[in-house]
Design brief:
Chain lengths: 261, 63, 67
């Protein structure tokens, strides 16, 4: 079979891997001043300043910045808080709002030109957010129903005939204590990791192809065009993942608050 | 004036958060460089975050 | 042919979530087709189901790289 000419310039291309996610420290040698940590701190500053500026001098007929801030808040409060949690939702709106804006800002930093790194693609950040959600929804359930009754309600679901408990109890315990926080965090991490990796593949691949044979040089613009398309797709996935994380946290809280009669 | 009070309160909470992180993080980082370990920065940042949240609660959360 | 077994595993594991996503959105489309006013009620449910199915696909992709 004829060997194609551009198969030989394949050496020298190192495809992006997990090593591309280990960014070096910025200030000196200290391991705790790497780019993701600085990006997370910067995102906190951006969110705070945006919402402070959009809500000062609040007019009755809002101007554009105030409308933007208010629509984000109204989105979290109404369609995630009120619809899902029900009539005690105002207690949880600060937590849900913080989760939503923190995740969406850090995700969007993955496609902003100079800051191109989504902090959530390092697995520790989603773990911490999932631990917070875990603590909140268990605390809410324990405070509402008492510790023993809450645990009994998890392990032995009411309304089922007794012999099914042998099958159901291990599944329920594993779901509530292991699977929920794990999938919550890993879903966010996997989406951000995969998206960043895809962008790296297209852009680094296109860049490598530009240095190759003339046949590859002609194909490189398609790689870059696909990279642009993937950036838009990535934007949609990032917003969706922030929404899903907050929605699932609200669902878990609503499940813990629900009365069993 | 109520409106000015609210805006001043928001900026001062923001300032407490930032300054707690910067000051205690800075102390932790300086200790790191002086003693050549690498966990003082983390401890300083956590201490700064915790103390600024506590200060916010002290000033604005108790009625 | 080079490569690892990770790729074969990832390819096989991507069948399930692809079918699941198709079924979820097929149900959403037929629900909206029967009753267009139900669109905003069904939309959060559709996206929730899609994200839950997609999570498994992405576990496969990430583990193919990491392991």
């Amino acid at each position: 079979m004829r060997k194609f000419a551009f198969a030989e310039s394949g050496e020298g291309f190192v495809p992006p891997s997990t090593a591309d996610f280990n960014l070096p420290p910025v200030f000196g040698d200290n391991e705790f001043t790497t780019k993701p940590i600085l990006l997370v701190l910067f995102s906190v500053i951006v969110i705070s300043v945006f919402f402070i500026i959009s809500s000062r001098k609040a007019l009755v007929v809002p101007n554009k910045l105030q409308f933007a801030g208010e629509s984000v808040y109204a989105f979290v409060r109404n369609s995630i808080g009120e619809e899902i949690i029900g009539h005690e939702f105002m207690r949880f709106v600060p937590f849900l709002f913080t989760l939503f804006t923190f995740i969406i800002t850090n995700n969007i930093f993955g496609i902003v030109p100079l800051l191109q790194f989504p902090a959530m693609s390092h697995v520790s950040f989603p773990y911490v957010l999932a631990i917070f959600s875990f603590i909140v929804f268990h605390y809410v359930g324990i405070k509402k129903q008492g510790l023993g009754k809450y645990l009994k309600g998890i392990a032995f679901m009411p309304g089922v005939p007794k012999f099914v408990y042998i099958l159901l109890t291990p599944i329920e315990i594993a779901t509530f204590f292991l699977v929920r926080p794990l999938t919550l965090s890993l879903r966010l991490f996997a989406n951000m990791f995969a998206g960043h990796l895809l962008l790296l593949v297209f852009i680094m691949g296109g860049d490598h192809m530009l240095k190759g044979v003339i046949g590859l040089k002609l194909i490189a613009p398609f790689a870059f065009a696909f990279g642009i398309g993937m950036t838009f797709f990535e934007f949609m996935v990032q917003c969706l993942q922030a929404y899903i994380f907050t929605l699932l946290t609200a669902l878990f809280i609503a499940g813990a608050l629900a009365d069993e009669h | 004036m109520g409106r000015g009070n609210e805006e001043g309160a928001m900026w001062s909470i923001f300032g407490y958060l930032l300054s707690g992180l910067i000051i205690w993080g800075g102390i932790g980082w300086a200790l790191d460089n002086w003693l050549d370990k690498n966990f003082f920065l983390l401890g300083g940042l956590l201490l700064g975050a915790g103390s600024s949240l506590y200060l916010t609660w002290l000033r604005f959360g108790r009625n | 042919m080079e490569g690892t077994l990770n790729l074969v595993g990832y390819g096989l594991s991507a069948i399930g979530p692809a079918i699941a996503t198709g079924m979820i959105f097929a149900a959403y489309i037929s629900g909206v087709a029967r009753q267009p006013e139900a669109r905003s009620v069904l939309q959060p449910i559709a996206f929730l189901g899609f994200a839950l199915a997609e999570a498994l696909a992405l576990f496969g992709l990430v583990l193919a790289f990491v392991l």
